[in-house]
Amino acid sequence: MKLPAPNALLGGLLIGVLLLVALTGAVWTPYDPLQLSFRAKLAAPSAMHWLGTDEFGRDVLSRLMAGAATSVWISLLTVTLAVTLGTVIGVFSGYLRGWFDRIVMAFNDALLAFPGILLALGLLAVVGANKYGIIVALGIAYAPSVARIVRGTVLSLREREYIAASRVMGNSEGFTMARHILPNCIAPLTVLATSMFGYVLLAESALSFLGLGVPPPAPTWGNMLAGSRPYIGQAVWLGIFPGLCISLTLLGINLLGDAVRDKLDPRMRGM
Amino acid sequence: MASSETLLRVDDLTLEIGSTGKRVVNGVTFSVSPGEIVGIVGESGSGKTLAARALMGFVPPAVRRVAGSIRFEGQEVTTMEPKQLRAMRGSRVGMVFQEPMTSLNPSMLIGRQLDEGLALHRKLSASERKELILDMLRRVGIRDPEGALTSYPHQFSGGMRQRIMLASVMLLKPALLIADEPTTALDAVVQRDVLELMVDLTKANNTAVLMISHDLGMIARYSDRAIVMCQGDVVEQGRTEELLARPKHPYTRKLLAAMPHRGPARALPEAGTPIVSVRDLVIDYGGRQGFFRKEAPKRALHGISLDVAPGQVVAVVGGSGSGKTTLGHAIAGLIKPTSGEIRFQGKPIDKSETAYWDYRLNCQMVFQDPYSSLDPRMTIGDLVAEPLRLVPGMTAAQKAARLQEVLAEVGLADGFASRYPHELSGGQRQRIAIARAVVRRPKFVIADEPVSALDVTVRAQVLELFAELQRKHGFSCLFISHDLGVVEQVADRVVVMNEGRIVEEGTRDAIFDRPQHAYTRKLLSAVPGLETAPDGGVRLFWRLVDETEAALA
After folding, report:
1. Residue B536: per-residue pLDDT
2. pLDDT (tens digit, 9 = 90+) per residue, B441-499?
3. Chosen from A103, A156, A162 to mutate, greatest number of chain B CBs within 10 A
4. Domain definitions of chain B by residue range
5. What is the DSSP string of B193-218?
6. Domain topology for B276-514
7. Are B24 and B182 in contact (CB under 8 A)?
8. Which domains, from first to last, does chain A contain?
9. Residue of A nearest to B380 (CA)
10. ipTM (interface pTM)
11. Which of the residues B353, B374, B437, B439 could staple to B421 if both were Cys, CB 3.0 to 4.6 A apart?
């Protein structure tokens, strides 16, 4: 057994640390993330508060740890929802073609014409602004782009001779889709899902910033980043640490995503 | 040969892949005299293309020249400055590439493309150049040369593009023309026309030709001398007739033996209902349908009727666009007929019929491209076993036993089941595709150009395997091919198609020895026949030569 590639190792390490922090944050944090302390407001990083405190004197490290669970959980569920929804639509559309494809894709393109965040805002107004509202709204907002890409992949796959071979064998359309089309879509899907994870993390923070995200005082990386804006001059650590968390998470997910894609592709084995 | 008469002299040319040190061209030595046609034959990986490209200084960056010299018109090419090389390319050495679809710039007018080389290498006025270009286009048989100047490449067929490519190279009257598989992408009749034209044009200008091909028949027909390459080495070279008649090296013998040849006609069980019977089959391809417009459909098949008797191999031959593949797909149930009827063992193949499953289980297909017909994410074992999933009443143990049996039949038993398609060579993949088609022991197999993507010796092995399986299991077969040589080897009966119609059909011997229809005759005249001499050599002969010569004159 040879060592995995350094990229995969670094990605795995980052995501491992993230999961550890998120799990720890759910049961224990150095301070109560909601505990106000007006004596220590906007304190710089020190031995007492490793990453400093915010405008209400809440410990930034504790809030980051508690927020990790919320942010990662929201992003993961949202990406899963968007990818599942988009893949189902894309595979059916691309494989079945005909009127089904035309109607679904016309609707899909209409959704794509809206900026994702605007669409999510509208949906949030309907489903309500809370954790699960965000997941549903962002999931629906991001599904059309997945559907587009999956459909394109399926269109080229369905002309391959192995799809014709499957039909000549007598396999049903459903079996052909599940056995031959879907597994061959995995490569573009992993790339898409990992990059989408980043967008969703940012979108969640944007929604939080607009006051439609996870309602305060509960911490998420997004609303911490958003909340740091007025204090950027006096307390730069307020913005830097949540930003760093988001960046490192994205880096980890992207590296790990590439490694997973290569692992799942038999053509890349032994290289 | 005196050195003053030698146009090109390659001495001990050795090329390596820089990173691995693998020798891809190994001490190659040969020479070309002015006006001579020299053929290089070899299979993929023989280094023939790399050797030829090195002559023009066109070697991929990964490849390094380790030793050897190339002298062209007395000058050493390997040490030339880039400027000298550029002056030589095009002007003194021309090159025609394999793929006419990509060798012309799609976004440039034909006139501009032809003018490019002339403007660069000759000091002529614009009107003189235009005169020369029009002359040359007329010479290569473009119907409306004036119009062609202001057309784009996509407006021409593959054959016409290769003519234009040839025109653009010959405009500069080079001393040497390198033709790398110039007609591999074209069908037999067009191939012949383009090659005849190339030979005529180069003879007229006393241009020497270095013709690179995997097709021994083509080299045999047009070259004065031939060089046989195998894995980077020149294994044999000499006068073409001599080489064919008395091959010395075992590899040359192997190549010659791999050329398709006719066996004795088989006795055929004619009786019984035909296994497949097609009546008045018409297929229209629907034009593009948008929301607001509907283009008129294009008719691909104009009323085809055809019977395949049990145990027979029926070959369907025709050029590209003849509808032969469409016919195969319709019989396989991949395309719905517009009108007409297809019956399998006397029963219609409609999905609503109870006989449908009998048809579906017993009619299988082998596809053309072994690279796209196998799902890259499945192991060989899964791929070959997949058709068994739908066979009623087979236990898992029986299926596993059948899988082993079939893998052994195609010669890929040991340890291949757990591998993936990309780990296999083209020939091995096609064996897997054949294994998948016969694993259910079907009564009828459609083979759509099953060997056209394979090298000569691999092709011979796969054809042999196919014939052996056919003898053993007795399935009927519809064998679709554009290659008459292959057809002559495998078919019991031959159906000739042209433009969506059957123009002639009959037993193999009748079609090959007494062709009636003009199109059949044209097809036959484009491929060589083969007589094996007792000492392992072969003699090629051309069918209906007088007639085609008369037609060309």
Report:
1. 64
2. 999 999 998 888 788 888 889 999 999 999 899 899 999 998 888 888 889 999 999 98
3. A162
4. 3-258, 276-514
5. HHHHHHHHHHHHHT-EEEEEES-HHH
6. Rossmann fold (3.40.50)
7. no
8. 73-265 (1.10.3720.10)
9. A266
10. 0.78
11. B374
pTM of the model: 0.81
* Closest CA–CA distance from residue B287 to any residue of chain A (Å): 14
| Beta strand segments in B397-452, E | 444-448
Q: Alpha carbon of B534 to those of B246, B537, B545: distances in Å? A: 10, 7, 25
For residue A111, which amino acid is it?
L
Burial class (CB in 10 A: 0-12, 13-18, 19+), B354: exposed
Query: A167–B333: do the CB atoms touch at under 8 Å?
Result: yes
**Bridge pairing between strands B233-239 and B23-32:** unpaired
Q: How far is B50 from chain A (nearest CA, A)?
A: 26
Following DSSP, what letter does each residue of B294-325 receive, concatenated? BPPPEEEEEEEEEEE-TT-EEEEE--TTSSHH
* Pairs of CB atoms within 8 A across A/B: 62
**Is beta strand B63-72 parallel, antiparallel or unpaired with respect to B75-76?**
antiparallel
Q: Of B543, B36, B8, B39, whose CA–CA distance to B244 is shortest?
A: B39
- What is the distance in angstroms between the Cα of A183 and the nearest Cα belonging to chain B? 7
Superfamily of domain B3-258: P-loop containing nucleotide triphosphate hydrolases (3.40.50.300)
Confidence category of residue B553, pLDDT binned at 50, 70, 90: very low
Cβ separation of B436 and A165 shorter than 8 Å? yes
Q: How far is A164 from chain B (nearest CA, A)?
A: 7
Q: Which of B13, B42, B38 is nearest to B28 (CA)?
A: B13
- B420·A266 Cβ contact <8 A: yes
Chain B hits for A166, Cβ within 8 Å: 386
Whether the domain at B3-258 and the domain at B276-514 fall into the same CATH topology: yes
Residues of A with CB under 8 A from a CB of B: 102, 160-162, 164-171, 179-180, 183-184, 265-267, 269
Contact A160 B390 (CB under 8 A): no
Which residues in B lie closer than 8 A to residue A160 (C-beta atoms)?
372-373
Partner residue opposite B367 with nearest CB, options A102, A164, A267: A164
Answer whether A54's CB lies under 8 Å from A42's CB: yes
Which chain A residues touch B420 with a CB distance below 8 Å? 266-267, 269
Answer yes or no: do A164 and B365 touch at CB < 8 A: yes
CA angle B255, B249, B258 (to 5 degrees): 15
Q: What six digits make up the tokens of B65?
A: 């020249």
DSSP bridge pairs for B28: B13
Is A184 close to B377, i.e. CB distance below 8 A? yes
